[in-house]
Amino acid sequence: MADIDLLQKITSAAGLSRYGQIAAQLQARIVSGDWPPGEAIPAEGALAKEFGIALGTIRQAIAVLVQEGLLERVQGRGTFVRKGLSGASLMRFFRFGGADGATAVPRSEILSCRAVRLDKAMAERFGLPSGARGLAITRRRWLDDKPRLLESIWLPLPRCEALQQLPVWEWGDLLYPLLGSQCGITVHRAVDEVTFRTLAHDEADLLELPDAHPCAVVTRHAFDLRGTCIEYRLTRGDAFAFRYTADIR
Amino acid sequence: MADIDLLQKITSAAGLSRYGQIAAQLQARIVSGDWPPGEAIPAEGALAKEFGIALGTIRQAIAVLVQEGLLERVQGRGTFVRKGLSGASLMRFFRFGGADGATAVPRSEILSCRAVRLDKAMAERFGLPSGARGLAITRRRWLDDKPRLLESIWLPLPRCEALQQLPVWEWGDLLYPLLGSQCGITVHRAVDEVTFRTLAHDEADLLELPDAHPCAVVTRHAFDLRGTCIEYRLTRGDAFAFRYTADIR
DNA sequence: TAGTGGTCTAGACCACTTG
DNA sequence: AAGTGGTCTAGACCACTAC
User: Where's the HTH gntR-type domain (chains A, B) (predicted)?
Assistant: First the structure.
């Protein structure tokens, strides 16, 4: 009992509750790949026994990671490591044509893909030194046989080197599953910023829209399980197809 | 014990856990005004005793309402009914000029305010019969001595009747605190939908922007504690001042 | 010092899923 | 039937806030 009290005081001094510490340890195992995405983690009872804590406490730790979106609980089946984002989530911002336009995956056409020197700002995003190398990709996305979105994507090297080996016609329509299978990167979180401007000449040409047509610009930072930025993306689409819903409080 | 088991079975049959039921009862007291916004609710121990349940269960019930945004817990002080939205939250979508533009409250200029017959769609939003009366308000909002936003607001009558009695020059810059003080309505949730279009002649005039200038349109449905829609608002602003950040997962 | 919420324990039984 | 998470109990002590 005295041991437990002492331990409690030490952890409190460190600024973390017991379940907070446990949550951090569980997170470490997920991040390290010890428990891969889609797999079940050990049962509550087993974990409680392993850490030498009560059931309620391990449940609290798990609840933290569920809240963070790292874990998913399913009654009767177990607790699972969440798979990464599908990547189709960018379409949340646009509604093109048909009724099922929201769910359909637009076809991807790679316009260019080459290794480049990252400028200072871009390298900093990826936590790399200035002048580090990256992959610069230009992509056009089609829906209903019409060009809908224009994307400029930057990825850090050498982390995404495997992509260079794979011919672009084998990439498929979604980047994130590709990052998972080829580079072992799970995209766990993305932050999108929306602004608005008019299209440049070349952009308008590629999107088959009039010159200086209004467009919505979505700037995305995507992060892996560790919280490291692993993608910077600039998406442009017809402003008049933009539609977004926000729920406040 | 047998009583408790029986009760458990009945409640399960009803599809609600014990803490779910308790949460519903607490919510009812909040909605009814029994526990007004900003006030503390009784302590956990007192509630547990009143409902004849364990501490952990009442805590779970409270957690539900915290998650819904109805309650707020503060260690050492108590659990409080959350006050409604301030109404300034619409500025989340726009960044005008200065650094503190995000926090500043724009000055409100009421252009018109009159009682009208609501059309079918509008009456349905408010849960009123077709042809019911409502208040139609046009408002222009200023920041840095420039017109920034144009708002068309509809409110249900007779719920908001008190507003008609008050001269518009005494309304102040924020609508929601006014709805609280004059009509006893707490705005607890809002759903905003963003689209883009170009300005009509009259709109461009009022915003001192060129004709057919691109604009962002925010369509808002606001709801009270009961979940009833109590405001429909259409806000228009310069598209080039639009900026919004979304965090995915 | 008294009262509040925050953390933690060591059990019990229930509901759901799978084999 | 066995294993999982979901609900609930009846306590204990700690950290924070206010008087």
Answer: 16-84
